[in-house]
Amino acid sequence: MSTTTLTTRRLARPTVRGWWRDIAGLTAWASVLFVVALWVSGRGLQDLTTDFFTSTGRLTGLLSADLLLLQLLLMARIPWVERSYGQDDLARRHRIAGFTSITLLAAHLVLITLGYAATDGSGVLGETWTLVTTYPGMLLAAAAGTAALGMVAVTSMRAARRRLRYESWHLLHLYAYLGAGLALPHQLWTGADFTASPVATAFWWTAYAAAAGAVLVFRVGRPVWLNARHRLVVEEVVPEAPGVVSVYLRGRDLDRLPTAAGQFCIWRFPAGPGWTRGKPLSLSAAPDGHRLRITAKDLGPGSRRLATLQPGTRAFFEGPYGRLTGTVRKGWKIALFASGIGITPLRALLEELPYQPGEAVLFHRAGRPADLLFRHELDDLAARRGVRIHYLLGPRPHHRPSWLPAGYAPVPDEHVLRHLVPDIADHDVYVCGPDAWIDAVLDSARRAGVPADRVHSERFAW
């Protein structure tokens, strides 16, 4: 079986600055406060007593527009933001901003309609018709734009996400860009708060330009440039286990690709129908400047198609993404927890990270021995680098959440963890696997005394 090994060749690695996260967070909150300040300067507080519905409608509209732009920026794949927060945290904040934005947008439509109806002395239905049909840009914003954003919000609910494949959900999610674009004409043509002063006009044009520019540069331009530069192609496809394959990729100047063990990319292979829908897959071997390896389990048509790829097939990628890397490490000792296909980024980390014999421990969870991926490679790492490995086989207990097999059920998880790794609180903990399993590991680590800033996880949820 082919393997990827570390070399002494100098590689480009992603960097993370501690202040990046602070600057990004402060900028987001500053934009929200500035929007409120614009509303106050436009007599928003004074108008509350005379025209409550219209005044609060103006505020909800301003906040909705700002949050809409912020959620676009959160998922624009801006490298320094993505490396500071990680995709899990960004996706969570993106969902919060998105649901809050669509809620405020609905409130804006209702409040403005009520306010205008009260001012004009007309009925609500009649005022709604007048607003939609006579105000410039309102038909696009209120009907088409709101419908597009509403569809994105509905398909982002947990129950809806469970029924959709990642590829389908991702395609529907792109309508958020359409919704944001359709809302712009209304805001610039009839939004008094957008054109009330040169400062307000400059702020909103700058905000929209920044959001559009970030999407074009980092979601379109950067992937196009990286793919043109590195020209990845399939070298070979290797079966790893029933329903699991590894794809080895080669290309140009891979030592200049800023990627690290633990990261993932969105992959597309032009072979067969539906290839344009991207698939997120982690690197399963440490990048060595010569080639890359990704590994996937058969979870649907997208991953199943990988087994049929032919050598020479072009590979298109977006990324690399993810914060589950050595850049977040606080100390020298590491404890890695993997369940199923979640072993892929952790196996790469074990290969790349520096540590001495006895300073690294791996917990590898699987239902049966045949499901243990990379067993021979992991045993080789254990022999060469002194990694302690605990294979966790068998079903888990049904009566309580646990990351351990049912045989450990009589003993609390954190007691087992402290028994197997007495100094676990001195370790950086890396976790990858299904959501419920990750939650059980994180709870156990917390109870065992691991500091929160030493726990790093990557979830398969989206």
TrEMBL record:
Question: Can the keyword Iron be found in this entry's annotation?
Answer: yes
Q: Which cofactor does it need?
A: FAD
For this UniProt record, give its keywords in alphabetical order, as a comma-separated list. Answer: 2Fe-2S, FAD, Flavoprotein, Iron, Iron-sulfur, Membrane, Metal-binding, Oxidoreductase, Transmembrane, Transmembrane helix
One GO MF term: flavin adenine dinucleotide binding
Q: Which Pfam families match?
A: Ferric_reduct, NAD_binding_1
One GO cellular component term of this record is:
membrane
InterPro entries on file: FAD-bd_FR_type (IPR017927), Fe3_Rdtase_TM_dom (IPR013130), FNR_nucleotide-bd (IPR039261), MRET (IPR050415), OxRdtase_FAD/NAD-bd (IPR001433), Riboflavin_synthase-like_b-brl (IPR017938)
* Membrane topology per record: Multi-pass membrane protein
Stretch forming the signal peptide: none
Taxonomic source organism: Amycolatopsis tolypomycina
Which locations, inside or outside the cell, does it occupy?
Membrane
The FAD-binding FR-type domain sits at 227-327
Q: Which named protein is this? A: Predicted ferric reductase
Tell me if Aminoacyl-tRNA synthetase is a UniProt keyword of this record.
no
Q: Report TM segments.
A: 19-39, 59-76, 96-118, 138-160, 172-190, 202-221
